[in-house]
From TrEMBL:
Residues 5-73 form the HTH gntR-type domain. InterPro entries: Bact_HTH_transcr_reg, Chorismate_lyase_/UTRA_dom_sf, Tscrpt_reg_HTH_GntR, UTRA, WH-like_DNA-bd_sf, WH_DNA-bd_sf. Gene3D superfamilies: Chorismate lyase-like (3.40.1410.10), Winged helix-like DNA-binding domain superfamily/Winged helix DNA-binding domain (1.10.10.10). The keyword DNA-binding applies. The gene is dasR_2. This is HTH-type transcriptional repressor DasR. GO terms for molecular function: DNA binding; DNA-binding transcription factor activity. It comes from Oceanobacillus oncorhynchi.
Amino acid sequence: MERNQSLHTYIKEELLHRIKTNQYQPGEKIPPELELCKSFNVSRTTVRTALNQLTLEGYLVRQQGRGTFVADKKVKQALSQTVRRYSDQLADQGKHPEIEVSDISVVAANELLSDQLNVNLQDPIQRIERVRKANGEPTQYEVAYVPWSVAPGITAEHAGHSLYKSLNEFFDVWIAKTSENIEIAFADEQICKFLECEQGLPCFYIETLAEDKDGNKVEFSRSFFRGDKTNFSIERTYSK
């Protein structure tokens, strides 16, 4: 145990190590609380605290009357420069991708959208609401905004796949650059409805601004990713 590390943190890290090194496999039932108490020579409260944290973070699943099981591996998405689509990234992980279009409407640009998309106030903006799923489980809730002048008449069929690919194929709009801002947010009542999670669940919140090769702003999106179902990889390359 590291210096100044609490007992429950040590137990959490040890169990997490076993999960990440596949000593505990996805779907496998871990030892019961009393057995872990004896193994680590600690109180049941200490073990329970560690298990609760791992459950909240999405590494364990507790089933009433059955015990505690290792959760399925989280959906991994790349934030590095990549042209690979969401569906391709999930397929590599053995997961079935799905994009559910909840709503498409036209709204008038407010101050935020006017600033982000460089359009005039009240200009028509297409609001596209979608939920991404992996193996049937919601992992991401997204609201994207595309100016009508950029791609008029986006349909559910266009949005039901890669939106960027549809913009290119049907509207001759090529996304050349995206900028992302990432924060931590907590799921409110509306987010919970789409992500099918408990209120207050920690989520990754990402705002994305997309530009074409001429620097025109063509899409702005706000996305919430379930923190217990998703993680991100970032790869950087450096020149001498």
